[in-house]
Design brief:
The protein has a single domain, classed as Rossmann fold, CATH 3.40.50. The chain is built from five helices and five strands; from the N terminus they run βαβααβαβαβ. The protein is 48% helix and 18% strand. The radius of gyration is 13 Å and the shape is globular. By secondary structure, it is α/β, with parallel strands linked by helices.
């Protein structure tokens, strides 16, 4: 799975996904923290990536568009990086299955 991790999530998430065999990059890897949502969306479309974000705007955009990336919308409150990765570790198989089945928005609570 190709993944772009948005700025509200830690770069460690992209590194963790890469260590698991996914092709992942954090927004700071290609544009920096001030990168606009439009640039992030276009990059995800261009490279065929799933977008991991806490930003509701991406979820709304994915729901309102027939084209574009799938969005993993993380609605978990602020948490320590290690706790976030542990939480996502148990959800990753279902995220991968949802992306494979073509779901546009995968909402995680």
């Amino acid at each position: 799975m190709r993944v772009i991790v948005d700025a509200q999530l830690p770069p460690a998430l992209a590194r963790w996904l890469s260590a698991l065999g996914h092709e992942a990059e954090h927004v700071v890897d290609f544009g920096g923290e001030g990168t606009t949502d439009s640039v992030i969306w276009e990059r995800a479309c261009e490279v065929g990536a799933v977008l991991f974000s806490k930003d509701e705007d991406f979820a709304l955009r994915a729901r309102g568009s027939a084209a574009g990336p799938s969005v993993v919308w993380i609605r978990k409150g602020n948490t320590r990086r290690v706790d976030l990765l542990i939480w996502l570790e148990r959800l990753l198989p279902s995220i991968e299955a949802a992306v494979q089945s073509g779901e546009r928005v995968i909402e995680l609570h």
